[in-house]
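Known limitations

Files may contain more than one protein. Parsers should not assume a single record per file. Below, a two-record file is shown to illustrate correct handling: read the sequence, read the C-alpha coordinate line, then continue until end of file.
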Amino acid sequence: MKANEVPQDKRDFKEGDKIHKLMYALDNDGKYTGITSAGWEAENIATKQAWDAVDEELAETAEKVKNGELSPIAYYMQKHLMEVSLLAKYVGKWQWQVKRHFKPAVFSKLGTDTLNKYAAVFNITTEDLKNFGK
Protein backbone atom coordinates (compact mmCIF):
# COMPACT_ATOMS: atom_id res chain seq x y z
CA MET A 1 0.00 0.00 0.00
CA LYS A 2 1.25 3.46 -0.83
CA ALA A 3 1.36 6.26 1.72
CA ASN A 4 -1.48 8.15 0.04
CA GLU A 5 -3.68 5.00 0.15
CA VAL A 6 -3.63 4.52 3.94
CA PRO A 7 -7.29 4.54 5.15
CA GLN A 8 -8.36 7.69 6.97
CA ASP A 9 -12.05 7.07 7.77
CA LYS A 10 -12.88 9.03 10.90
CA ARG A 11 -14.00 7.11 13.98
CA ASP A 12 -17.35 8.41 15.02
CA PHE A 13 -17.45 6.36 18.23
CA LYS A 14 -14.41 7.88 19.93
CA GLU A 15 -13.89 11.41 21.16
CA GLY A 16 -12.01 13.55 18.70
CA ASP A 17 -9.02 12.40 16.69
CA LYS A 18 -6.95 11.30 19.70
CA ILE A 19 -6.50 7.68 18.65
CA HIS A 20 -4.55 6.87 15.52
CA LYS A 21 -2.99 3.65 14.36
CA LEU A 22 0.53 3.48 13.01
CA MET A 23 0.67 1.74 9.65
CA TYR A 24 3.58 1.24 7.29
CA ALA A 25 3.29 2.18 3.64
CA LEU A 26 5.53 2.91 0.70
CA ASP A 27 6.54 6.51 0.17
CA ASN A 28 7.27 8.11 -3.21
CA ASP A 29 10.80 6.66 -3.17
CA GLY A 30 9.51 3.10 -2.61
CA LYS A 31 10.71 2.99 1.01
CA TYR A 32 8.55 1.99 3.95
CA THR A 33 7.51 4.83 6.21
CA GLY A 34 5.21 5.15 9.20
CA ILE A 35 1.83 6.78 8.48
CA THR A 36 -0.88 7.42 11.04
CA SER A 37 -4.34 6.21 10.11
CA ALA A 38 -7.77 6.86 11.56
CA GLY A 39 -8.72 3.42 10.29
CA TRP A 40 -11.25 2.38 7.69
CA GLU A 41 -15.00 2.10 7.88
CA ALA A 42 -15.34 -1.69 8.12
CA GLU A 43 -12.71 -1.89 10.85
CA ASN A 44 -14.31 0.98 12.78
CA ILE A 45 -17.76 -0.65 12.64
CA ALA A 46 -16.40 -3.98 13.86
CA THR A 47 -14.46 -2.27 16.64
CA LYS A 48 -17.53 -0.30 17.72
CA GLN A 49 -19.62 -3.48 17.85
CA ALA A 50 -16.97 -5.23 19.94
CA TRP A 51 -16.75 -2.34 22.42
CA ASP A 52 -20.54 -2.11 22.62
CA ALA A 53 -20.62 -5.81 23.60
CA VAL A 54 -17.93 -5.22 26.24
CA ASP A 55 -19.86 -2.24 27.64
CA GLU A 56 -23.08 -4.27 27.77
CA GLU A 57 -21.42 -7.14 29.64
CA LEU A 58 -19.78 -4.68 32.02
CA ALA A 59 -23.15 -3.06 32.78
CA GLU A 60 -24.62 -6.52 33.50
CA THR A 61 -21.74 -7.31 35.85
CA ALA A 62 -22.15 -3.95 37.62
CA GLU A 63 -25.81 -4.76 38.18
CA LYS A 64 -24.89 -8.16 39.64
CA VAL A 65 -22.47 -6.46 42.03
CA LYS A 66 -25.14 -3.99 43.11
CA ASN A 67 -27.61 -6.88 43.61
CA GLY A 68 -25.13 -8.76 45.80
CA GLU A 69 -24.58 -11.60 43.32
CA LEU A 70 -20.90 -10.81 42.63
CA SER A 71 -18.13 -8.92 44.38
CA PRO A 72 -16.55 -5.76 42.94
CA ILE A 73 -13.48 -7.81 42.01
CA ALA A 74 -15.43 -9.43 39.18
CA TYR A 75 -16.48 -6.00 37.88
CA TYR A 76 -13.01 -4.45 37.95
CA MET A 77 -11.44 -7.55 36.43
CA GLN A 78 -13.86 -7.33 33.53
CA LYS A 79 -13.45 -3.56 33.26
CA HIS A 80 -9.70 -4.05 32.83
CA LEU A 81 -10.28 -6.79 30.23
CA MET A 82 -8.56 -9.42 32.35
CA GLU A 83 -9.07 -13.14 32.65
CA VAL A 84 -9.03 -14.93 36.00
CA SER A 85 -5.63 -16.44 35.22
CA LEU A 86 -4.01 -13.04 34.65
CA LEU A 87 -5.59 -11.45 37.72
CA ALA A 88 -4.50 -14.42 39.84
CA LYS A 89 -0.89 -13.93 38.72
CA TYR A 90 -1.02 -10.20 39.45
CA VAL A 91 -2.31 -10.66 43.00
CA GLY A 92 -0.27 -13.79 43.75
CA LYS A 93 -3.26 -16.09 44.25
CA TRP A 94 -4.47 -19.32 42.72
CA GLN A 95 -7.26 -19.02 40.16
CA TRP A 96 -9.70 -20.85 42.42
CA GLN A 97 -8.99 -18.29 45.15
CA VAL A 98 -9.75 -15.37 42.84
CA LYS A 99 -12.98 -17.06 41.75
CA ARG A 100 -13.91 -17.49 45.43
CA HIS A 101 -13.29 -13.78 45.94
CA PHE A 102 -16.08 -13.10 43.41
CA LYS A 103 -18.53 -14.26 46.08
CA PRO A 104 -19.77 -11.29 48.14
CA ALA A 105 -19.67 -13.28 51.41
CA VAL A 106 -16.03 -14.21 50.85
CA PHE A 107 -15.13 -10.72 49.59
CA SER A 108 -16.49 -9.12 52.75
CA LYS A 109 -14.05 -11.18 54.84
CA LEU A 110 -10.91 -10.41 52.81
CA GLY A 111 -8.04 -8.88 54.73
CA THR A 112 -6.51 -5.49 54.08
CA ASP A 113 -3.40 -6.91 52.40
CA THR A 114 -5.46 -8.85 49.86
CA LEU A 115 -7.76 -5.90 49.18
CA ASN A 116 -4.72 -3.65 48.73
CA LYS A 117 -3.28 -6.05 46.14
CA TYR A 118 -6.52 -6.04 44.16
CA ALA A 119 -6.83 -2.25 44.41
CA ALA A 120 -3.26 -1.79 43.20
CA VAL A 121 -3.86 -4.04 40.20
CA PHE A 122 -7.03 -2.12 39.31
CA ASN A 123 -5.35 1.24 39.99
CA ILE A 124 -8.05 2.29 42.45
CA THR A 125 -8.15 2.86 46.19
CA THR A 126 -9.05 0.10 48.59
CA GLU A 127 -12.02 2.22 49.68
CA ASP A 128 -13.27 2.41 46.08
CA LEU A 129 -13.03 -1.36 45.85
CA LYS A 130 -14.89 -1.92 49.11
CA ASN A 131 -17.54 0.77 48.48
CA PHE A 132 -18.46 -0.09 44.89
CA GLY A 133 -21.33 2.04 43.61
CA LYS A 134 -21.77 4.02 46.83
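...continuing to the second record:
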Amino acid sequence: MIYKQIVQKFHEEVLNERCYDNFFLYCHRDFTFKSNDDRCVFGLDAFADHMNDYQQAFPDLTYCTENMYQDGNCVIVYWKMKGTNKAPLRYYPATYKRVELTGCSFFRFKDGKIYENYVCFNEYEIPKQLGLLQNV
Protein backbone atom coordinates (compact mmCIF):
# COMPACT_ATOMS: atom_id res chain seq x y z
CA MET A 1 0.00 0.00 0.00
CA ILE A 2 2.80 2.44 0.82
CA TYR A 3 4.18 2.29 -2.75
CA LYS A 4 0.86 3.47 -4.17
CA GLN A 5 0.94 6.43 -1.77
CA ILE A 6 4.49 7.30 -2.84
CA VAL A 7 3.50 7.24 -6.51
CA GLN A 8 0.46 9.42 -5.83
CA LYS A 9 2.58 11.97 -3.92
CA PHE A 10 5.14 11.92 -6.75
CA HIS A 11 2.39 12.70 -9.27
CA GLU A 12 0.90 15.45 -7.11
CA GLU A 13 4.03 17.19 -5.85
CA VAL A 14 6.70 16.60 -8.50
CA LEU A 15 4.61 16.49 -11.67
CA ASN A 16 1.54 18.61 -10.94
CA GLU A 17 3.04 21.15 -8.52
CA ARG A 18 6.48 21.04 -10.21
CA CYS A 19 8.18 20.79 -6.83
CA TYR A 20 11.37 19.11 -8.00
CA ASP A 21 12.94 19.80 -4.60
CA ASN A 22 10.82 16.86 -3.38
CA PHE A 23 12.10 14.51 -6.08
CA PHE A 24 14.43 12.58 -3.78
CA LEU A 25 11.72 12.15 -1.15
CA TYR A 26 10.10 9.72 -3.58
CA CYS A 27 12.79 8.72 -6.08
CA HIS A 28 15.92 6.63 -5.76
CA ARG A 29 19.28 8.30 -6.46
CA ASP A 30 19.66 5.95 -9.49
CA PHE A 31 16.21 6.85 -10.91
CA THR A 32 15.54 5.93 -14.55
CA PHE A 33 12.73 7.35 -16.70
CA LYS A 34 11.61 6.23 -20.16
CA SER A 35 8.67 7.47 -22.19
CA ASN A 36 7.45 5.45 -25.18
CA ASP A 37 10.40 5.09 -27.56
CA ASP A 38 12.39 8.05 -26.20
CA ARG A 39 15.83 7.40 -24.80
CA CYS A 40 16.15 6.70 -21.10
CA VAL A 41 16.91 9.61 -18.83
CA PHE A 42 18.75 9.13 -15.57
CA GLY A 43 18.38 11.19 -12.43
CA LEU A 44 16.68 14.39 -11.39
CA ASP A 45 18.27 16.83 -13.82
CA ALA A 46 17.57 14.77 -16.93
CA PHE A 47 14.02 14.03 -15.79
CA ALA A 48 13.33 17.71 -15.02
CA ASP A 49 14.70 18.71 -18.46
CA HIS A 50 12.45 16.14 -20.15
CA MET A 51 9.36 17.27 -18.26
CA ASN A 52 10.21 20.94 -18.78
CA ASP A 53 9.43 20.62 -22.51
CA TYR A 54 5.87 19.54 -21.72
CA GLN A 55 5.40 21.86 -18.76
CA GLN A 56 6.46 24.94 -20.74
CA ALA A 57 4.26 24.00 -23.68
CA PHE A 58 1.33 23.23 -21.35
CA PRO A 59 1.75 25.50 -18.30
CA ASP A 60 -1.47 24.18 -16.72
CA LEU A 61 -0.48 20.53 -17.32
CA THR A 62 -1.86 18.14 -14.71
CA TYR A 63 -1.96 14.39 -14.27
CA CYS A 64 -4.97 12.74 -12.64
CA THR A 65 -4.83 9.14 -11.44
CA GLU A 66 -7.65 7.08 -12.94
CA ASN A 67 -6.65 3.65 -11.54
CA MET A 68 -3.69 2.28 -9.64
CA TYR A 69 -2.55 -1.29 -9.04
CA GLN A 70 0.28 -2.67 -6.94
CA ASP A 71 2.00 -6.04 -7.12
CA GLY A 72 4.98 -6.45 -4.84
CA ASN A 73 7.46 -3.65 -5.52
CA CYS A 74 5.71 -2.54 -8.73
CA VAL A 75 2.90 -0.05 -9.25
CA ILE A 76 0.93 0.53 -12.45
CA VAL A 77 -0.98 3.79 -12.85
CA TYR A 78 -3.56 4.62 -15.48
CA TRP A 79 -3.70 8.41 -15.69
CA LYS A 80 -5.29 11.27 -17.59
CA MET A 81 -3.23 14.28 -18.64
CA LYS A 82 -4.84 17.66 -19.34
CA GLY A 83 -3.35 20.95 -20.42
CA THR A 84 -3.61 23.98 -22.70
CA ASN A 85 -0.91 24.44 -25.32
CA LYS A 86 0.46 27.97 -24.82
CA ALA A 87 4.04 27.58 -26.09
CA PRO A 88 5.82 25.47 -28.73
CA LEU A 89 6.43 21.80 -28.00
CA ARG A 90 9.59 20.65 -29.75
CA TYR A 91 8.71 21.20 -33.43
CA TYR A 92 4.99 21.92 -32.89
CA PRO A 93 3.85 25.55 -32.69
CA ALA A 94 1.65 26.87 -29.89
CA THR A 95 -2.04 26.46 -30.81
CA TYR A 96 -3.77 27.53 -27.56
CA LYS A 97 -5.88 24.38 -27.77
CA ARG A 98 -6.66 22.06 -24.88
CA VAL A 99 -5.29 18.51 -24.90
CA GLU A 100 -6.57 15.57 -22.89
CA LEU A 101 -5.13 12.10 -23.18
CA THR A 102 -4.69 8.95 -21.19
CA GLY A 103 -1.64 6.84 -20.51
CA CYS A 104 -0.07 4.24 -18.31
CA SER A 105 2.96 4.42 -16.06
CA PHE A 106 4.91 1.53 -14.61
CA PHE A 107 6.89 2.18 -11.43
CA ARG A 108 9.41 -0.19 -9.88
CA PHE A 109 10.75 0.41 -6.39
CA LYS A 110 14.18 -0.17 -4.87
CA ASP A 111 15.07 0.60 -1.26
CA GLY A 112 11.54 1.99 -0.72
CA LYS A 113 11.81 4.62 -3.48
CA ILE A 114 10.87 4.88 -7.16
CA TYR A 115 13.75 3.34 -9.08
CA GLU A 116 12.24 3.07 -12.57
CA ASN A 117 9.36 4.90 -14.24
CA TYR A 118 8.24 3.80 -17.70
CA VAL A 119 5.46 5.79 -19.35
CA CYS A 120 3.35 4.82 -22.35
CA PHE A 121 0.78 6.95 -24.18
CA ASN A 122 -0.31 7.61 -27.76
CA GLU A 123 2.12 10.34 -28.81
CA TYR A 124 0.05 11.14 -31.89
CA GLU A 125 -2.83 12.32 -29.72
CA ILE A 126 -1.01 15.56 -28.89
CA PRO A 127 -0.53 16.88 -32.45
CA LYS A 128 -3.91 15.42 -33.45
CA GLN A 129 -5.75 17.29 -30.68
CA LEU A 130 -3.75 20.43 -31.44
CA GLY A 131 -5.10 20.25 -35.01
CA LEU A 132 -1.64 19.61 -36.47
CA LEU A 133 -2.30 16.07 -37.75
CA GLN A 134 -5.28 14.83 -39.66
CA ASN A 135 -6.68 11.27 -39.87
CA VAL A 136 -4.33 9.67 -37.35
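Parsers that stop after the first record will miss the second one. For reference, the second record is described as follows. The CA atoms of residues 60 and 100 lie 12 Å apart.
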